[in-house]
Write a structure and sequence with these properties.
By secondary structure, the protein is of the alpha+beta class. It contains 25 helices and 20 strands. Helices cover about 50% and strands about 15% of the residues.
Length: about 650
Amino acid sequence: MKLKHLFLGLFIGLAFTAKAQNNSKEVLFTINDKPYYTDEFIRVYNKNLDLVKDESQKDLNQYLDLFVGYKLKVNKANKLGLQDGLQYQNELKSYRIQLSKNYTTDSKVTKELVDEGYKRLLKEVNASHILILVDENATPADTLAAYKKISSLRERVVKGEDFGALALEFSQDPSAKENKGNLGYFTSFKMVYAFESGAFNTPLGSVSKIVRTRFGYHIIKVNDIRDNRGEITVAHIMIMKPKEAADSLTAKSTIDAIYKKIQQGEKFEELAKQFSEDKSSASKGGVLSRFSSGQLSSDEFEDQAFSLTKEHPISAPFESQFGWHIVKLLDKFPIKSYDDSKVELENKISKDDRSRLITNSLTEKLRKKYPTKRDSKLYSSLVKLVTNDFYEGKWTLPENAKSFSGTLFTVGTKKLTGTTFLDYVYSQQKSNITVKPVDKLVDKLYENFADDQRNQYNNDNLENEFPDFAAVMEEYRDGLLLFDLMDKEIWQRSKTDTIGLKAYYETQKEKHLWKTRVNTEIYSSTDLETMKSVLAMLKKKQTPKDIKEKFNTKEVLKVMSYEGVYEEGADALPKGTKLELGLSEITNKGDYYFITKINKVIPAGIKTFEECKGKIVNDYQQYLELNWVNELRKEFTVKVNQDTFEKVKKQIKK
C-alpha cells in the first residue's frame, strides 16, 4: 500500500491543480473506437511540462506516443475487469470523499473563522462565569425559567453586586464552589465556541450579554486580557504540602536544602529523581508534558514557569496549593505564524462547534441553488401517518407505505418520493429530536431531509458542474487502475521471473562493469605523531584491534579505522591512493591524516548478476513495459487524427 501511495503521490498533488484549459475539444485519437479528446491531452501536457526531465518527452510527437501508451494500459485494465475490484472501488470512493471537501464547504466562511481563531489565539482572557443549566432540548417553559433566572442575576451584577459572591451562591457549575466562577486564563478553541465568543467580545472589566451554550445560560465577566504566552516545557522538583500544618516548616526546609544543592552545581535531574514527591515525573528527572496557560490547576506554578528565561532558567523555591516547587525551564514555544497555524486551525474548526457555521452557510446556498416545491396534498397525508410513538422509538412504517410513492419534491433532476421520506422518518427515531407536537416534528424532519438531499445531489453532481473536479477524478481513477495493472503485469513479474531476469542480464552484462577495486584498511587521526606510531605498528603486522586498544578509550577516540572493498575513485579512498598492495605513506587532507593498507587488488571486470541485480530488475521492468505496450498496440486498434494533432501542436506552441 505504501508503494501505491508513493506512485500516486506526485500524480495526485498535480491533479489538484488541474484546470480545464480549453472548453472546445476535438477527437485526437481513438482506441477501439473510444474517443480521447484534445482538451485532456493539452491539459496533461501543460501540467507536466515543467516536471519532465527527459527533453525528448517534451517533444509533442514523443508525448503523444506516451499518452496513447498510457491510455492503452487503462483500456487493458478495464478489459481485465480491474475496475470491478472491491479494494479499487473503496480507494476511489475514499479519494472522492476527500477531494469533494474542496467543493462542498464554504471557503469564505472557513477563512473568516480561521482569521478570527488566529486573532483570538494571540490573546489569553481571564474570565469568570455564572451558569444556569438548561438542556438544549428542554421544554419552552424550562428554557424560559432558566433565562429569567440568569437575567435577574445579570441585573444584580450590573447594579454592583459582587460577581464572585453571586457565582458562589447561584452558579450551577460545580467548580464555582471552589473558584467563585473564575475559570482562569484561556484562549481560542479552549471553550465551546459560543462561550469563547462571549468572552472575547466582552470588554475588559465588563459583563457579557447572556450567552447560550449546550450547557445552559451564562453571564461572563472579563477580569484580564494578556498576550498569549505560548507553550512551555519544564522540569520540577516538588515536596508535597504536609497534611499537618505543623510539618510545613519541614517541607520548606527540605526544598530550601535541595535548592542549595542546585546552586552548588548538583544536577537538577538527579535531584528530581532522588527527592521529588511528584511520582509521575520524578523518574523522568522531573520533566512535565508541554503545557500552555490554563492547562494546569495552579496559576502560581504556571506564572513561575513562564517567568523563567534562558539566562535565569531555574526558579527559587515557591509554594502552590499542592506543595513546594523548584522549576527548571527546558524550552519555550511561542505562538506560530498565521501561515504555519492555518492547517491546524482548519482542522480544529472542523471538529469544533463553529463548523456548524460553515455547514449552515453551505445549506443556505444550496437552498437557493436547488429550490424545492413539495406536493402539499401528499405531504399532509404523510404527516398524519407519524404518531407520538416516534418519541419512544416505537413508530413503525405503515403497511401501505408504498402507496405514497408519488413525487414529494424534486432536487435538480432527482425525484424524491413520499415513501423515501417515510423511510427517513423511521431512521431518525434514535436521533434525539424531541420537537413537539408531532406535526412540528415532521416539519423539522422534512427540513432536515430536504437539506440532506440537496447536499447529496450537489455532491453527486460535482463532475457535471466542475470540469476540473471531473478531470482530477478521471486521472485518479486511471492512476489507480494503472498501478494495479503494472503491479500485475510488470512489477511482480520482474521480481519473480528468475529465468527471464538472468537471460536479460546476459544480454546487458557488458554495460555493468566494475572499475579496479581494492580490499583495504583505512586509518585516520587528527594527530600526526599518533599516525606515525600507527604506521610503525602496521609495519610490525599488528591488527586494527591492537591499534584501537592502544590509542582509544571510552572518553577519547584518537584513531578511527574502517575496512572494505572500494572501487577506483570512490570517495571513501583518501585522495591520491595508489591501487597497489601494501602500506601507503601518511597523507593529509584538511585536519586529518590517513594511512591506507591495501590487502588485495581486484582487476576491472563484469559485475555478477547478484552484484547488479537491483539495476537489472529496474531495467528489465522498463524492457518488459516497452514490449508490453507494443503488444497492446496489436491488441487494440489505435487511430490518430493527424490533422487535429497538427492543430494541437500550433495551439500549444503559441
